[in-house]
Amino acid sequence: MLPLRLAAFLLSLALLAQTPPAPKKSILIQAGKLIDPSSGRVLTNQKILIEGDRIAAVGPNIVASMGTQVIDLSAYTVLPGMIDNHTHALLQGDITAADYDVQLLKESIAYRAIRGTASVRTALMNGFTTIRDLETEGAMYADVDLKTAIERGIIPGPRMFVATRSFAPTGMYPLLGYSWELKLPEGSQIVDGADNIRRAVREQVKYGADWIKYYSDRRYYMKDGALHSWVNFTDEEAKAMVDETHRLGHKVAAHCMGREGIEAALRAGVDTVEHGDGLDDALMDVMIRKGVYWCPTIYVGAYVAEGRAAAGAPIWVEMAKLVEKAFRRGVEKGVKISLGTDVGGFAWTENEAKELNYMVKYGMTPMQAIQASTTVAAALLDQQDNLGAIEPGKFADIVAVAADPLADITALEHVKFVMKGGVVYKN
């Protein structure tokens, strides 16, 4: 015979198993205009039914059942929550090397993480319901902690896909220029040699990295009208990094600006090119053939150019001009371009959506720019089944603006309504 307490416990479990789950909260959004980036169309007078954290139905004739909360956005333009595929939540702007060094030398990781909680909240309030955070810049695995705190509802913020520490070889990434007698923090994880790199990839994945990021190049210079660079890793090292990452079921983002750095990254088999100022037709053809995505990060180049030129690096002004030429050509050729801003490289007080204005000025239609921040960005993350469109089955990540972003893309710098996973964060 079972002890009385054990019997009572098992009975309570049985009764609990028979108890029906609590009904999901239902919300009906009435949308005046609905931008559908999947089809490139604008629909009018649509209704969006949300059950729990996902979209249940979309159409003009949905009738709300008893108890359904109704949100009236009939005077607004509604679209999917935006995705920024290149952020640094643990960084607060580094126009010059001194700005960067101060953050690593004078701010603790705990303090930077506290500032990071404000950064991710800012992103969410600006309508970015998902971000890919491409390294902590010396703050170790604090991006994993931010992601965890958001997922547990401790702080508000976007869905996060994180790259933790990034990789660079010895002597090729800040902090640099200090006395050799001082042991200073590093802005990334320093690794050399194929075997060490494979182990380091496993370590980052162990501690929560969704993506692996590395620095493919440095030392940018102009020659024959093209942007060139010094390559950081040997082909053997870069290939080992990419192979190990892919073997573990993850993907690789490569910081590469000059032609040599981009070419080396593509040889290694990376999944995304970050920045890519020096892209030309031949390199774009390789990207198209291999299905590699590009995050051009235009705004950050414009933001830091003058400051870095004044600090003795005039090449940044030239690079800001080159990216316009490359971007226009990439749009013409059909390169898969995702929005990525590099916010953190510029201050979080600047709205990430300013990147969209540059994308339109440099050759995209407003609809293409919106697709770059929704459907294309979701596909880069392999999240097209969950994100990037307002469709049944996808997460209820929805934003709204008062003006028409197809007439003026800067309307997306003034988001009035934000929902993530069926929860309203801004209304």
Descriptive terms for the model:
427 residues, alpha/beta, Urease, subunit C, domain 1, TIM Barrel, 2 domains, 7-stranded mixed sheet, 5-stranded parallel sheet
Notes on the protein architecture:
The chain has 427 residues and is an alpha/beta fold. It folds into 2 domains: 94 residues, Urease, subunit C, domain 1 (Roll), CATH 2.30.40; 299 residues, Metal-dependent hydrolases (TIM Barrel, Alpha-Beta Barrel), CATH 3.20.20.140. It has 13 helices and 19 strands. The chain has a 7-stranded mixed β-sheet, with no helix packed on it. Strands 10-13-14-15-16 form a 5-stranded parallel β-sheet. Helix 4 links the parallel strand 6 and strand 7. The N and C termini lie far apart (59 Å).
At a glance:
This protein is of the alpha/beta class and 427 residues long. The protein contains 13 helices and 19 strands.
Give the proportion of residues in helices: 25-40%
Going by CATH, the architecture of the largest domain would be: Alpha-Beta Barrel
What is the topology, as strand order, of the major beta sheet?
A: 3-2-1-4-17-18-19
Number of helices: 13
What is the CATH top level name of the largest domain? Alpha Beta
Rg over CA atoms? 23 Å
Largest sheet: 7 strands, mixed
Strand content: 25-35%
**CATH fold-type name of the largest domain:** TIM Barrel
Question: In total, how many beta strands?
Answer: 19
Which helices and strands appear, and what pairs or packs with what?
Layout: H1 4-18, E1 26-36, E2 41-51, E3 54-59, E4 69-80, E5 82-87, H2 97-106, H3 109-125, E6 128-133, H4 142-151, E7 159-162, E8 167-168, E9 189-190, H5 194-206, E10 211-215, E11 217-223, E12 226-231, H6 235-247, E13 251-256, H7 259-268, E14 272-275, H8 281-290, E15 293-295, H9 298-310, H10 315-333, E16 336-337, H11 354-361, H12 366-372, H13 375-380, E17 398-401, E18 415-420, E19 423-426
Parallel strand pairs: 1-4, 5-6, 6-7, 8-9, 10-13, 13-14, 14-15, 15-16
Antiparallel strand pairs: 1-2, 2-3, 4-17, 11-12, 17-18, 18-19
Helix pairs in contact: 3-4, 5-6, 6-7, 9-10, 11-12
